[in-house]
Design brief:
By secondary structure, this protein is α/β, with parallel strands linked by helices. The protein folds into two domains: 301 residues, Zn peptidases (Aminopeptidase); 130 residues, Aminopeptidase i, Domain 2. It is built from nine helices and 20 strands. A nine-stranded mixed β-sheet has the order 1-2-3-13-4-14-18-16-17, with helices on both faces. Strands 8-7-10-5-6-9 form a six-stranded antiparallel β-sheet, with helices on one face. A hairpin with a 3-residue loop joins strand 2 and strand 3. Helix 5 packs across helix 6. The longest helix has 23 residues. The protein is globular. The two termini are 18 Å apart. The mean pLDDT is 92.
Length: 451
């Protein structure tokens, strides 16, 4: 496998994919370059066998799928991931001034479960979705913009002013985590809106609203004596988004021409789909999150478009339900590698190694949706493609996180496996993974779609 090729691609993608909105933008450009055609979320669909499509879902989620060139109602295979990462959201009227020192600050609130102290003293920027006034009250102009350079930072308090800092400090999000951005002077009270308007080249009064997120501008880089590791922001969960994209694009190529590999058919009699949801880090309870009906609606539209005009609506609905119940989903999200300084935090019989391959996640409490049949499928794909794999379970006295699998299963009850690359420092502003693991997870998704 070409390990550096995969990790280089991941580094580039993460550099462009700075929040959910820019992740979707970046993904769309890749899909368009592979010949995927755009479908409107609320439009009528007319699909053709052998073609590949994508749907922009409220600008921060994305569906893409291939229709097998010999489609005859075959297997539905879905890979899911999430586009969001822990960060800080810009509040309305965010301008604040320090009482002394003439420093402008931005009022922010935490998004997801970030490790707060890792965000201090870093070069940070902001990416936003902005709503701008138009002549049509029901269709304001929407722009996705990214400052693409460090414009804010969150300064630490010097040790001289907090002698106990190395014993541990509880950071207050409303006090300690406010980024500084400028020296506005005494007369300027709306310095953020003025700056945003100038960047967008619009009048400040025309800006109706925005959704803005702070992000770490540092680039991914290799570390280790032999470049064994990758240190990078947003590994959770851009590793999985990239794996989904690589898999569905490979599926599209195989569906067209078998990609020169007789083992790969691109599921030519069925449907391959990816769905990258937003808002996993805050519970998925949104219209673009995994706990919404948006994916079920789109799948039903998909199958209705492909069924014969001679079939009744009830027949089409029954066929759609059967496709779902006979389908399979892989839910992709990062996993915890065993920490070299704290191995006691992991399960005593299920150590997880970086560069050891994708991690299959298990939980008796069903915080992961994995079941034995689904695991069996994944293990056979791994063995066929010569991919190493690992199995994870939390310590019995610790409550672990959850992910998309069990949430998606509420809407789409199909066999599912939760799986992802192992990383250290999950939810830090900079996370660490093994260089080989991105290639492994990409190869797994490729096999899932193409075998």
């Amino acid at each position: 496998m070409e390990f550096k090729k995969s990790s280089d691609r991941l580094i580039k993608f993460i550099g462009d994919a700075t929040c959910s909105f820019t992740t979707v933008q970046t993904a769309i450009e890749l899909l368009k370059g592979e010949g995927f055609k755009e479908l409107g979320l609320g439009a009528d669909w007319k699909l053709e066998r052998g073609e590949s499509y994508y749907v922009n879902v409220y600008d921060s989620s994305l569906m893409a799928f291939t229709v097998g060139k010999n489609y005859d109602g075959g297997m539905l295979r879905i890979a899911t991931a999430h586009t969001d990462s822990p960060s800080f959201s810009i509040k309305p009227h965010p301008e604040m001034k320090s009482a002394m020192g003439n420093v402008g600050k931005l009022n922010v609130e935490g998004y997801g479960g970030a490790i707060l102290n890792t965000w201090l003293d870093r070069p940070l920027s902001i990416a936003l979705k902005v709503s701008i006034g138009s002549g049509d009250v029901f269709n304001p102009e929407v722009k996705i913009m990214d400052f693409r350079r460090p414009v804010v930072t969150i300064p630490n308090l010097a040790i001289h002013m907090n002698r106990e800092v190395n014993k541990g400090v509880e950071l207050n999000k409303q006090v300690d985590m406010l980024p500084i951005c400028c020296q506005p002077g005494t007369d300027m009270n709306d310095f953020f809106m003025e700056y945003l308007a100038s960047e967008l080249n619009v009048d400040k009064e025309d800006i109706l609203d925005y959704e803005g997120y702070v992000y770490n501008t540092e680039k991914g880089q290799y570390i280790g004596f032999d470049d064994e590791f990758l240190l990078c922001p947003r590994l959770d969960n851009e590793t999985s988004v990239v794996a989904c994209l690589v898999g569905i694009m490979e599926s599209s190529r195989a569906n067209r021409d078998n990609a020169g590999d007789s083992q790969l058919n691109g599921n030519e009699d069925g449907i391959n789909a990816i769905m990258v949801f937003d808002n996993e880090e805050i519970g998925s309870m949104t219209k673009q999150g995994a706990n919404s009906s948006v994916l079920t609606f789109m799948l039903e539209k998909l199958y209705r478009s492909l069924e014969s005009d001679n079939e009744t609506s009830d027949d089409v609905r029954a066929g759609y339900i059967n496709r779902v119940l006979n389908g399979m989903m892989i839910s992709l999200d990062v996993a915890h590698a065993t920490h070299p300084n704290h191995p006691e935090k992991n399960d005593p019989t299920n150590a997880i190694a970086m560069n050891g391959g994708p991690v299959i996640k298990r939980s008796a409490a069903q915080r992961y949706a994995t079941d034995a049949r689904a695991v069996g499928v994944v293990e056979q794909i791994c063995k066929k493609a010569d991919i190493p794999y690992q199995k994870f379970s939390n310590r019995s006295d610790m409550v672990g996180g959850s992910t998309l699998g069990p949430i998606s299963d509420i809407q789409l009850p199909m066999i599912t496996v939760d799986i992802g690359v192992p990383i250290l420092a999950m939810h830090s502003a900079m996370e660490t993974m093994g260089v080989k693991d991105q290639a492994y997870i990409e190869e797994l998704v490729r096999g899932f779609f193409c075998y």
